[in-house]
Amino acid sequence: MRPYNRAVPGSSDLLLLEGMSFYGYHGETEAERTLGNRFHVDVEVRLDLSIAGRSDDIADTLDYSHAFALVREIVEQHQYSLLEALADRVAATLLGEPRVASVKVRVGKQPPIPGSIDRFWVIIERHAGDSG
């Protein structure tokens, strides 16, 4: 995630899914929840990739196409009022995958407000074993 690349605690290994974009129906206003909007998602997943590096077996890592599908399903098939809730659901889902130590999730949209802004972003970090 370009300027937000601060290290996430946990493994030093990283899977990065950057530039995902989906159409969803999230927001506080009825118009946002009815008309929808394009949502942009970047995810950093920290996990030990050394076993996969030696085995060359996809079963020893987090398959990025599977991670992409999980994120897509959350953005496209669920509805949240806040980006914070959407990002938290993505983080919780990815933390539920085997071997995942921590995640950083960045979710953005162009808000329906007067004036000019490229995107509004929410960035959250979650770690395996965190409560809440």
Quick summary:
Helices cover 30% and strands 30% of the residues.
Task: Describe, in plain words, how this protein is organized in 3D.
This protein is of the alpha+beta class and 132 residues long. Strands 1-2-3-4 form a four-stranded antiparallel sheet. The protein has one domain: GTP Cyclohydrolase I, domain 2 (2-Layer Sandwich). The protein has helices at residues 30-35, 50-55, 64-77, 83-95; strands spanning 14-24, 37-47, 100-109, 120-127. 30% of the residues lie in helices and 30% in strands.
Indicate the CATH topology: GTP Cyclohydrolase I, domain 2
Give the C-alpha Rg.
Answer: 15 Å
CATH superfamily: GTP cyclohydrolase I, C-terminal domain/NADPH-dependent 7-cyano-7-deazaguanine reductase, N-terminal domain
Shape: elongated
Given the structure, what is the number of helices?
A: 4
Q: State the share of residues found in helices, binned by percent.
A: 25-40%
Q: Give the class-level CATH name.
A: Alpha Beta
- Main β-sheet description: 4 strands, antiparallel
Strand arrangement within the widest β-sheet reads 1-2-3-4
Q: Secondary-structure element sequence? A: EHEHHHEE
